[in-house]
Amino acid sequence: xxxxxxxxxxxxxxxxxxxxxxxxxxxxxxxxxxxxxxxxxxxxxxxxxxxxxxxxxxxxxxxxxxxxxxxxxxxxxxxxxxxxxxxxxxxxxxxxxxxxxxxxxxxxxxxxxxxxxxxxxxxxxxxxxxxxxxxxxxxxxxxxxxxxxxxxxxxxxxxxxxxxxxxxxxxxxxxxxxxxxxxxxxxxxxxxxxxxxxxxxxxxxxxxxxxxxxxxxxxxxxxxxxxxxxxxxxxxxxxxxxxxxxxxxxxxxxxxxxxxxxxxxxxxxxxxxxxxxxxxxxxxxxxxxxxxxxxxxxxxxxxxxxxxxxxxxxxxxxxxxx
Length: 322
Hints:
36% helix; 8 strands; 8-stranded parallel β-barrel
């Protein structure tokens, strides 16, 4: 499906509303993103909050049952919350299916001794507090990549830049990708471009950005965008199912993230949360099926990036030698 055909996709309730004299203006072609993933395709899928091998097995089984294509599976508790055996099992299971596995680096400010994150202002949020926290994130990155993981989730600008420099220096595999967390994601085109130049290969934006905000970002950067179609409650609980086709039109290349509202938090995960983690993992896949069905009904389900694709294409970076 080309950009032109994407613009022609049917919008929700369009014919009935037009018959009632309530039709909306035609979409402005200038709002369409001109960008795609390398190798073609304007959108990929992601199942987030997959907290270990058991949850991964549930996701894979349910995705097969419901025929939900998956490009990426991400975990939120962190590399440090998994054993080597668990990481290896997850890396092998996803590699067999051509799915990218993304693990979070830590430590992060919301879990350490810093009290400012518990104030009304939230202080520095998830950022890495002090040299030792940065060092912990680097340790996680080195360990995870040695065990076969090739995508790392980052929640701090300094950690991102450090890991990008490590990648450029050959300390991390050259095909390692860095994904910016939704909890620190940029909300304007200027900051989005900065994250790209710091080394980000995909960037989570908050799910409350307007369609116009998405268009503004696409005018300055082609870096893949990650966006919760349904956001967890701690990220607002937004459900944007009926906007998916328009989000793709404006935001491509776009990762459609199938989160889950009205579900208790599971970070940091442990076996005391096992039943909740498995149940919510299964439901996230079902939410993905609902979203894909909706896209199909609107004639906007074409132009998915090929399964097994994961790299972001050529992006702009700051000079690592400076």
